[in-house]
Amino acid sequence: MTEDAFIEVDRVEKVFDVRRRTGFLRRERRQVRAVDGLSFTVARGEMVGYIGPNGAGKSTTIKMLTGILTPSGGRLRVAGIDPSRERTRLAHRIGVVFGQRTTLWWDLPLIDSYRLMHRMYRIPDGRYRENLDRLVELLDLSALLEVPVRQLSLGQRMRGDIAAALLHDPEVLYLDEPTIGLDVVSKARVREFLRELNVERGTTVLLTTHDLQDIEQLCSRVMVIDHGRLVYDGALAGLHEVGESERTLVVDLERESPPIDAGDAARVVRVEGPRQWLAFPASGSAAALVARIAAEYPLVDLSVREPDIEAVIARMLYGAGDGGGVDAGDGGGGGASGERETVVPGAGNS
Questions:
Q1: For every residue of 100-139, which 3-state class applies, written as one string?
Q2: I need a labelling partner for 150 at 20 to 30 A (CA). Which of 30, 40, 67, 77 fits?
């Protein structure tokens, strides 16, 4: 491990014992290896995307890093602390946001949850007021502070959870789907907030998400996990190249026309009246392609559709024609069944 590593994961394993009914009064016991020999380091102040198909081991990793779960083997350190042995001590240095679970008190107004955390974490009064004011302003929470958490929408609750995770100035922030349920404006606000947090305070961020734009706008590094093993660690552009992923340019012409000729820059994958879908490499820029089409064809409107993260991973792991491998091994669902199926029909539903 390197000396500047803030998060250290060294050959970590996590095995669960699972029992299932095989007959009347009979149960079969088997072991499921959720994390298998996982190793990586994250430097202080890094923002890293941690992605993979459903069931790949992402949440299990986060739970071990927070001390919720104990590894079956290997070594874990966060800020020099063993999470499972010193969970209480570590809690003062980390913040966690689980997109599908809340750390807020369900029946209490949002502000009461913050007051309870003020006491739980023993945050100095001045620092608490300063952090609360800043978070309320940046995350647009002022109108929600007296509203019971159970009455908040998913997007409102997500913003409330992010604020709760940051009240005590954590050194590392674990985010599991932080923009789920947010509208476009709120997503942009949260992303900008996280970017400023990382720059101003040097907060280390480990982000799991199914939204490719979260990764593109926040992370310079991405790690891909599959079946509990690290299969890629590098830049997002490199992931696109390895997975040969494609973006889709949706073009609305003034009238129905033959397929657009974009040369080697793109290929038409669907035509429906005056609307056409063109696929082009995700690692490339759309600007030149758009300029070329605008110069040669009568445009009404156009948009760019990003590839689904699970489709990118499926192509990387199983090839363009075998996305079903994710379904068989991980229960990844339709999003992992192949990029062409995910991107093109989705564009037609808009």
A1: CCCCCCCCCEHHHHHHHHHHHCCCCHHHHHHHHHHHHHHC
A2: 67
